[in-house]
Structure formats: structure tokens, C-alpha cells
Backbone:
């Protein structure tokens, strides 16, 4: 809405120039045409005509910019829906239903063209659609999401049949909903998989634990406790011995220590592959915090990270995954400007990130075979980036500290370079034909921190 209003103000500001020229050129015609005032009136008329011409061109190009921005936002909205639902068929199916409807969204009153970019569909007819259409064709939007679309649309589902007795209809609907709920409760796989959690080989007890954690992630206090609990757990089953009552002594987070202890009991039974997805699920609840609460919560995350005297890459991934989105939401950081367009400009950072990725993904085999596998995976990634001179480095505590700064710097890369980096990361973890959970979660966290998130199901 902020962007919509800015576009409206921009267009009306340009139109005001033409309006001012119209006032100047028309008002002087009604004045005295005496010879003494003729020169002054002529200058005003010429100035008015010049302003009208400038305003006309301004409105023309302003409308083109308005339409281009609006069309691009429609494509971005489709991409966001795919990222949010992790299912391209969802938005493509909705667009197919919209495209199959015969009703039109056109308006007869064209005096409100300044707000045409705020409508859900193309509101006005225009001959030069490629320049002035505020919404791209439905067919083009579907093809962007589903490249192999066969061109057929879908018909909307028929409305449910109305019962003669409203009470009977309500009773029947409630009964049907209860039956469906009872069928799904013993096996809540659908809900968990939709949340991006891996549950295929989990026991019923583990599934029940995940269901409980997913429900808790919707409450702001429980969400904070969940993030702190995950952060307190290292990559394995180890938990940092933290005095939660002392750390969480502030009035703002009073009572959070009890919630964290309860969450820790549940988190210990959760595999690494499901920890970061749980963090992602807490984002809507954490966004409902006040700015003061978030700043204190962010300080708590730093305290927990520094408690054992070192910041592991796992801890940094959790911290960056949370703060990258929430800092923007609470207005703590400004929009990032592109600084790097070539991989050579961030070669050192890529060397550290790729070395950390192969280090955590190949550390369970024999030392000699392990070194060879890591070198091959690293070389495949840097070859894709055309940085053949880079050599893999051994990751130690010093490089773990540098990892956070390296990923932060990658945030300022251009979109094309980010895409190339993500492709290199994927090639790196897929080198040996299998993707370890720690590789997958670290890759997703790096991509999200770079502001280039990728769908979890695509890996």
C-alpha cells in the first residue's frame, strides 16, 4: 500500500504540472487584450503551453512506469505465493480458475486511472497493452509458474447444495468436519509436511511432538521460547547448561524461562532436518512483537550464542534466519543496495562459505576419503562460479567467526550473482549423490540470509 500511494502521488504531481499550464494558458485569455499587457500575457501563455506539453509527456511516461511497476508486482506476488506455499500448482490452479471465468473486471468510468494499479485485474481497456496494461495476461502469469502448461483453464467448483432446513445443514457440516478431523488426527502427516517438516520415517510419538511444537510456534511467547531452545541445542543432542531464570530475568520476558525449559524437553527429540523449519514457522508470531520486545529478544539470542564462548555455524544460521527477516520488518535496516556483480568481488567470502558447507557435509567418513570428497565438491562449486583458482580451506573456530560476516556480504550481491551462488551451493551438496540434513539446512539458511530463499521441497 505504501508503494501504491507513492505511485498515486507521483502521477498526480506530474499531472499538476499540466494542470498549472492549463490554468496559465486559459486564464490569460479572459484578461484585457490591451497593447500594454499583450507582451506579459503572451509570455504567460507560452509558459502555460510549455508546462502543458511537459505535463503531457510526464503523464505519458508516468502511466508507462505505473503500468510496468504494477505488472512486475503481479509476477512478484505469484513468486511469493510459490515461496510461501512451496507448491507452484496452488497459484497456477487459482489462475486457471480465474482465466476460465467469463465475467470481466473492466470499469466504464475511466476518471480514476491514477489508481488502476490497485485493482485486482485489468480495469481499463487499452490499445497498447504492452505499455499501459497494469496487469499481465493470465496466460503469461500461468506460464511463468507452470512452463509446460497445456493452455486449458479450470472451471470453478459448484457451490454446495443448500438444505431446506438450516439447522440440519449446520449439523451435517459439523458432523462432516468432525469425521474428517478424526480421520486426520491419528496421522497428522499432511499438516506437518505442508509446514516443510520431514516426517516420513518418524514414529507416532515424534510426529505428536512436532504437532505440539507447530501449535506452540503460533504464540509469540511460545515462539520466542522455541527459538531460544533450538539455539541452545547444538547440532547433536547436547544442550548448553544455561541458567534460564537468570538470563530471562527481565520484566518484558517474565515467565519465558519456564516455557524454554518445556520446549527444550521437546526439542531434544527433534532431528536437525526439522529444527530450522520450526524456526521459519515462528516468523508470523514473532512479527506481532513490539519493537522493544524484539530488541530485547534479539539481545537474548546474542547472550545464548555467546554463553559457551564461541559462535558455531549452526548458531549463526539460526540467528541470521531470525534477524534477517525481523530486522527488516521492524525497520532496523534499510533496503540493501547492490555492490557486487561479479563473483571475483566476493571470492574470499565464497571460499569460506563453500569450505564450511563441505566441512559440515562430509565429516563422517575416513580422513583420506573425506578430504578427497570435500575437495571434489568444493571444486565443482567454484568451477560453476568461474573461480578455478580458489582452494578449499580447513574450517576452525576462527573461520566460524568469519562465516557470519561472509554471508552478510553476499547479501549485497546482484540478483543474477545470487542465483549463480545458490546454484553453486546446490551443486556442492549434491556432488556425492546424497544430501545430508546438515547440508540441506545450512544451504537453506545461507540462501535465506542472502535474501535469495529457495523452496525446501526442491532439494
Residues:
Amino acid at each position: 500500500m505504501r508503494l501504491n500511494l507513492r505511485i498515486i502521488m507521483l502521477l498526480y504531481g506530474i499531472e499538476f504540472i499540466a494542470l498549472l499550464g492549463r490554468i496559465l494558458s486559459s486564464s490569460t485569455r479572459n484578461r484585457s487584450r490591451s497593447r500594454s499587457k499583450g507582451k506579459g500575457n503572451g509570455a504567460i501563455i507560452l509558459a502555460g503551453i510549455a508546462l502543458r506539453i511537459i505535463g503531457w509527456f510526464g503523464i505519458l511516461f508516468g502511466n508507462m512506469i505505473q503500468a510496468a511497476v504494477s505488472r512486475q508486482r503481479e509476477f512478484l506476488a505469484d513468486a511469493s505465493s510459490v515461496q510461501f506455499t512451496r507448491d507452484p500448482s496452488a497459484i497456477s490452479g487459482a489462475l486457471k480458475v480465474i482465466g476460465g471465468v467469463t465475467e470481466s473486471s473492466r470499469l466504464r468510468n475511466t476518471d480514476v486511472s491514477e489508481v488502476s494499479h490497485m485493482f485486482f485485474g485489468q480495469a481499463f481497456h487499452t490499445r497498447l497493452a504492452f505499455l499501459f496494461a497494469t496487469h499481465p495476461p493470465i496466460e503469461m502469469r500461468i506460464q511463468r509458474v507452470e512452463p509446460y502448461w497445456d493452455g486449458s483453464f479450470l472451471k470453478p467448483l459448484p457451490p454446495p447444495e443448500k438444505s431446506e432446513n438450516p439447522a440440519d445443514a449446520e449439523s451435517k457440516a459439523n458432523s462432516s468436519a468432525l469425521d474428517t478431523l478424526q480421520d486426520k488426527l491419528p496421522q497428522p502427516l499432511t499438516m506437518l509436511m505442508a509446514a516443510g517438516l520431514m516426517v516420513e520415517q518418524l514414529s507416532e510419538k515424534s510426529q505428536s511432538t512436532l504437532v505440539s511444537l507447530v501449535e506452540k510456534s503460533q504464540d509469540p511467547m511460545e515462539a520466542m521460547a522455541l527459538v531460544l531452545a533450538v539455539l541452545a541445542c547444538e547440532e547433536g543432542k547436547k544442550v548448553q547448561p544455561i541458567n534460564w531464570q537468570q538470563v530471562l530475568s527481565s520484566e518484558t520476558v517474565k515467565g519465558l524461562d519456564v516455557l524454554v525449559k518445556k520446549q527444550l524437553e521437546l526439542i531434544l527429540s527433534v532431528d536437525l532436518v526439522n529444527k530450522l523449519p520450526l524456526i521459519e514457522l515462528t516468523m508470523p508470531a514473532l512479527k506481532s512483537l513490539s519493537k522493544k520486545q524484539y530488541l530485547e529478544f534479539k539481545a537474548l539470542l546474542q547472550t545464548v550464542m555467546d554463553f559457551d564462548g564461541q559462535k558455531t555455524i549452526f548458531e549463526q544460521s539460526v540467528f541470521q534466519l531470525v534477524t534477517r527477516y525481523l530486522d527488516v520488518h521492524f525497520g532496523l535496516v534499510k533496503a540493501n543496495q547492490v555492490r557486487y556483480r561479479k563473483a571475483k568481488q566476493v571470492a574470499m567470502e565464497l571460499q569460506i562459505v563453500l569450505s564450511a558447507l563441505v566441512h559440515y557435509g562430509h565429516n563422517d567418513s575416513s580422513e583420506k576419503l573425506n578430504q578427497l570428497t570435500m575437495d571434489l565438491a568444493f571444486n565443482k562449486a567454484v568451477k560453476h562460479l568461474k573461480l578455478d583458482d580458489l582452494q578449499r580451506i580447513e574450517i576452525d573456530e576462527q573461520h566460524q567467526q568469519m562465516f557470519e560476516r561472509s554471508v552478510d556480504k553476499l547479501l549485497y550481491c546482484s540478483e543474477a550473482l545470487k542465483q549463480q551462488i545458490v546454484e553453486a551451493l546446490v551443486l556442492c551438496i549434491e556432488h556425492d549423490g546424497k544430501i545430508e540434513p546438515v547440508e540441506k539446512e545450512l544451504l537453506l539458511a545461507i540462501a535465506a540470509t542472502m535474501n535469495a530463499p529457495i523452496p525446501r521441497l526442491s532439494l
